[in-house]
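Crash report, auto-generated. Payload:
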Amino acid sequence: MYIKIHRGARQIGGCSAEIACGANRVFIDIGSDLPGAETADEPPRIEGLTTGDTKNSALFFTHYHGDHIGRFGEVAEGVDVYMGRTAKAMLLNIARYTDREMLPRYAAIKTFEARDKIHVGGIVVTPLMIDHSAFDAYMFVVEARGKRVLHTGDFRTHGFRGDKTFEMLRRYARDIDYVICEGTMLSRPGEKVLGENELKKRAAELTLEKKYIFVLCSSVNIDRIAAFYQAKPAGRLFICDKYQKEQLETVSLRHAAKSALYDFRYALSYGPNLDERMEKDGFRMLVRRNEWSRRHLEKYFSEPYRKNSILIYSMWRGYLEGSAANRELIEFLKPYDPETLHTSGHATAEDIAELYRAVNPKEGLIPIHTEAPEEFKTLIPDGNIILLRDGETLAI
Ligand SMILES: [Zn+2]
Ligand SMILES: [Zn+2]
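Recovered output after restart:
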């Protein structure tokens, strides 16, 4: 058996890992590099996945973010691909608007529910649902020949559902030999980490202070949308566009019965018939960087509405400054002087140390999805941290 980090050993994004046993190969994620990364345009060449003999291979997606799924188009036809059921439905919604040629490939993805057992030859993969800024995201326990590997994907404990993380791991991730763990935040130590509940409270305060509230956040960060959706004085409308409404309906359909947090029944897709009510009663509106949103922003950032309007920027600061900065986004936001209200989708340093203690891997931890793999050694001084290079094989 072996573990191989194909990509992502020293970068956030572009992730792809492999756990193999005999002829069978389980791959986890194949993502795009983050904007600004040196290798951003190089197509990945991964033996057993994009090239060579792929008949005993399977690919599992932890979640639908581009840095985990963005290079799916490179995967050889015929490889079995798996992801969460709701995540797949959301991915299909995305593709219908942005990437229609990928629709047949996305449609062929097989789905799982939390704690299903999926067999790939002699390898068994068990998905464990976790909290992240993507909905329906998973860790995986991969086991074969008595060895057990936990791949964390992207996770956090400060989201609405994050407090159950360690309890779940103690229950379902026992006897783990190796952990492959994300370390995004280890190179972003200054980033403020607010609980999603705290953020929701602040969102409620802002909706009391202002009447016309615009929110710019990811259309697939469902927990963040829920934070703003829930923060409503009675009668205040919640407006989005057709695509966002489809995403919210997809989530509501499957999850509203289990949690009121995901019941978005009063979210309205904008139509001119709403204009009068919007002006009179006020609203919260999801916006994106497009002309449709600009039209609404321009109206409400002009007189006489201006003093009652606010734009909240609820995404990573890195899109506004530094190497991943997005010029068009910065220009788009400028006239409206947005207020930032955001929290990370990733595990804090404390989370990672706690995960190590909870899982207590017999052999050690392999960093992935990080620009600072050495920091794991400082963080967990008495742990065994195994630093691999991209493409290096660790026999287990
Ligand atoms: Zn992610
Ligand atoms: Zn990621």
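Post-recovery validation: Residues 131 and 161 are 6 Å apart (CA to CA).
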